[in-house]
Amino acid sequence: MSAPLIIVGTGLAGYNLAREWRKLDSSTPLLLITADDGRSYSKPMLSTGFGKQKNADALAMAQAGAMAEQLNAEVRTHTRITGIDPGHQRIWIGEEAVAYRDLVLAWGAEPIRVPVAGDAAERVLPVNDLEDYARFCQAAAGKQRVLVLGAGLIGCEFANDLTAGGYQVEVVAPCEQVMPGLLPVEAAHAVQRGLESIGVGFHLGPVLNSLEHAGERLMAELSDGTRIDCDLVLSAVGLRPRTALAEQAGLACGRGIQVDRQLQSSHANIYALGDCAEVDGLNLLYVMPLMSCARALAQTLAGNPGRVSYGPMPVTVKTPVCPLVVSPPPRGTVGSWEVEGSGQDLKVLCHGADGSLLGYALTGTAVQEKLALNRQLPPLLA
Amino acid sequence: MKKWQCVVCGLIYDESEGWPDDGIAPGTRWEDVPADWLCPDCGVGKTDFEMISIG
Known about the structure:
The structure holds two protein chains of two kinds.
Chain A: E1 5-8, H1 12-22, E2 30-33, E3 40-41, H2 56-59, E4 60-62, H3 64-71, E5 74-76, E6 83-85, E7 90-93, E8 96-99, E9 102-105, E10 109-111, E11 124-126, H4 130-140, E12 145-149, H5 153-164, E13 168-173, H6 185-197, E14 201-204, E15 208-214, E16 217-222, E17 227-230, E18 232-235, E19 239-241, H7 244-248, E20 257-259, E21 270-272, E22 277-279, H8 287-301, E23 315-317, E24 324-327, E25 335-342, E26 345-352, E27 357-363, H9 370-374
Parallel strand pairs in A: 1-2, 1-9, 2-5, 9-21, 11-18, 12-13, 12-18, 13-14, 20-22
Antiparallel strand pairs in A: 3-4, 6-7, 7-8, 10-19, 15-16, 16-17, 23-24, 24-27, 25-26, 26-27
Chain B: E1 3-6, E2 12-14, E3 49-52
Antiparallel strand pairs in B: 1-2, 1-3
């Protein structure tokens, strides 16, 4: 029997690559390996689940068995690979060696954990996959007050969604505005005001120092001395691409596993995509670039080598109280920002010296202009 | 009138309802939706939608 294509990871990257590739190659054996239960779900939906009153089972779209059948694949669940041996084209799962024709690393990124003192530090929960979500739902059942660590995109989405789901939310982050690095300050203020209007409290500047049990509840103490009563803590302070096994195998890694425009790593027959990959220097943790990579890599693996290209990649942030779409200027470009509009409805545009549009942030009703503006944006990877 | 579903997030585009928030009028057929329209929930493009039958 010929060696299979092995995909490690069954998140959006793994399953969508498998789906795209199967459209082109229906016969080569396919093995998917996942550390979790292999259920197919849409990650963007994790931060809209509370408002829709959906638990983890409701967000799951298909079981591993159904995916295996649909993809004509073997799906090994609750399985962690322990090593990669590029020289012999095989991976290790404990003592078991499995040969591959091609290997795709699509195992995602790890939530960053900030050290917290106190006897309740274990009650700080990240939500980066469906199992995390299930754990968080269970911990949140019957509770009222949630402290969210981090005011980035994910922290803001959860703040909005948990509020919609009936929770009282406080956000703590060591920054001066929400989504620093992604949003110009005017747009950030519009989103923050929107979230405040539905009751979200913000503590921007301090960090969480300690978390202690206090009877049935928890007492959080911030670095500025503020004490906050809460029931649980959601951590959304960022993600770090998983690279450890790749580094051990000698694959070039920077922020993520470094791959070229064909998604190939520094070793032949080993590829990476999704949150763990650094594609031509870009590690973008969004769905749209992931889908572009999945389509390009499927072609390459089917014998039609192709380079991935990224068009404009606007990011829709799911804060319904103040809708937001942002397209940051491409790396290396210099532009100046201008604000139009008022209140929650802002059109903030970034233009280069030659007058061309480089990026934008749209809030409130201004998001309706995104399609027209997208046509003027430069591609991220031409 | 048909319905189309985003394979990434499960969002359904119903031709009979269109997507007024993005200026797409009710009754707009899928082929007439602008090629650069993006899934309002997860941001992927038209190519990631697949048609589902509504019986």
